[in-house]
Amino acid sequence: MAEDGQPVRREVVTAALAVLIAELRTRADRSTPGPPPLLGFTLTGNAEDLRAAIAHGLGADGARQVPHALIDVGGTAPATTDDLRALLKAITDAFATGAFGRGQQPRFPRFWLLDFVFDQSLGPDSRKHRVEMAKRVRDDSRLLAKRPEIAGEFTATATWSDLPLGLSAALPLAVFRLITAWRLPGTGRVLRWVMRRAYVARREASIWALAVGLSRSGTRRESPEARRLLVHAVLRDLADEFHRVPWRVRPWRATTLPVLVLFGPTATNAGGVLLELVDRVREEQRDPLVIATVGVADHGADLFGRDAVTADEVTVALDRWRADPRGKGFVVDVGAVGAPVRAAVTTLVPRREPPRPPWFTHWLVLLLVPLVLVAGLAVVGLRALVLECAPLHLGAGRVDVSRESGECVGYSDHADRVFGSDERLRQVQLGIFAENRRVEAAKAATPSHPVMTLVYFGTLTKPDSGAGDQTFAAEREELQGFAVAQHRANATAATSADAPYLSIVVANGGQNMGAARAVAEKLRELRAEDSSVLGVVGLVESRETTKQAIADLGVTDLPIIAPTLSADGIGGLSGHFLQIAAPNADQSRLVVDYVANVLRRQRIFNYFTFGPIRDGQRREDVERGDLYVNTLREDLGRDSAAADLGYEEQSWTGQSLRPVCSDRFPDGVVFFGGRYSEFAQFIDTLYRDCSGKLPVVIGDDSVNRYLANAEARDSAPPTLPLTYVSKGSLAFCGNLVTSGDSERRYFLEDVRTTLGACLPDTLLPVGERVGLAYDAVLLLVRTTQDLIAGKSDKSLPDPLYLYTAITDHTRDEPYQGVTGPLSFTPGGVAQDKHLALLCVPDLPNAFTPDHPVPDRVHEIGRRAASDAPAVSRPCG
Fold this sequence. Notes:
By secondary structure, the chain is of the alpha/beta class. Helix 3 (81-97) packs parallel to helix 12. The strands form four sheets. A seven-stranded mixed beta sheet has the order 5-6-8-7-9-10-11, with helices on both faces.
């Protein structure tokens, strides 16, 4: 009745009920803590109009529908298991075959499996008939034929993890029995669920054992446990179908909850049994099913025993449920009077089409996403390979790299391939490569203008280097020298038709130049392909591998200029080698003269090391192949004898240095004649072992790599004065600012512009290797310019002719480099090149405002006329 006591029109009540269900299937969403509500409708007369209205409200005549099942239960006979199973079959078939839209038909693998098992009829021989059961399932097609609407999909499985069971028909019987006993990993999720129900007899070893037991006793199939298992299976299947997880698409396509409408359930038929079991199962697990019951008064008392309510009361009840949806459900009994109204039902009830599934569940997206992911991974992977070390370079520029002993070695002139992990080292390379692109643009604008290419060949990686690693500070300085020289050369080329533009290729020979020979072969091929390549500059680390690489490069007739190599005879296998730095023989002479004539000491104790041993290397090969350390040892022994000094030497591997502390070695000097990589540990050990009785310490020129590494110096002993050999001290900021030499003035201008160093308001110094690399590059560039000036076609000279021109010109008149005058012996070794000993009183504070540049304390070799007078004094 309405509030005024008048009967409620049937069509209005019908509309309210359909809208109510349509509302609930969206409101009872996955955030609701309790189960969906249970609705009870009680009507008088024929319920066909209500059935049609509800179906219409759930979108039955649209392209997309709410997944629903409208089931007539009927009958009043006592419910048996078979009756309940028949009802459940009707419900699951209605859901599985409904035209609800793509991906909206639920599947019921647990129920379908149990339904099949309950149909079996086997004899009493348990063992024999377990085998028979397995054979039937394996060989019989009935399991698939029972649900032809989903033929092709094994109905006892719900996900790909159960695929082995689905393929069981093709498996041997023994394997099949293992799978069905869920004793193989990744199989039988549905079977495990069945066997783990607490009300299933635990003595059953497998689903087939359970089936045999059920078949032997028909009463077991009609037991309360069997009924509950069937209902529980249906609800669990629905829970799986509508539970959204990232790796399953189907639940995301289901944008509404499923609705079940039972017409005519009573406490004495299968419908009532179903509702009772649903209530019990929901005490154990949650499911998404919205259930409505329609009881007709002609069939007897209504199921819930409540009086009819008005349409307004339906809305009130709905609002009450929305406010507190955590209960087990609520019941609404609606009665109606008057004759059925059929004609206008579809106009009175608004159709509620389900929301469309998310865009990412569309078949086209599902098709394209894997393709896009595969393509993206391919691009990322290819890009990673290119960045990491792909032999195939797909970008612009000259690039040829390969992986050797965990390092990316080869050459590059493009930002697509940058060597090393130290960010500052990489930034210098990127600056050079950017200048290369400007050279390409200038060449495109003036095709007749000459462009020459030089290769920097150094060691820019090691297998375990990190992003903040300053191991390659010395290489960074050399590349900075290249960048400064490139800036000077291209600035000159912009105003002179004879001056070539300079492009630079960076080549990496790996740790300790271990891959030098392999990279030399790549450079030989580069020269064969590109006639603009006129020389190689670099080749750090005077080792046997480096010497052999020089010989390999010699086959190309390219001039090879080493700014810092100093081992005696390092270039002996090449006829095109130029050594900018003074040789070890000169370094030994400098040290011995300083010890004997300046410090007035009587003995030299040389501790030497050979650097790290790479994987796959033998220690004896590394030690024998270190030409720098071994030739320096030989020179020191010979010169010490000539100066009447006592000379001792020992390989240092971490042993105590107590024997050379000042109290035990008062008339001697400790010389570190090894590789810089062990120098930090060496001085720490010396400082600890001598406990304030520190000896005089002199380091070889390898120590300048340690000095270039501010991070290493931060932890150095603060009161240990150090004297070390320097090959490029004349190009330090202090000497540049006060020098009247024109070449050094140009260099000062270039380092300020390119590096931001040596500015009046900056503390950034110029590393000593910057000047050495700068001299090597511009020696090649300016000699090339002189040779081009004599040609009408401005063509580049032959590399062999370029080498000859350098040696001939410098023999007559030394080249005035920023690190001192340059001329060469017939073997290409710098002759009488300037060499100095520098004093660092406080290692952690070196190159700081208080100690901007280590002081020169002794020097040999030629100097420019404008240089300050030579000094000779003790350190400190």
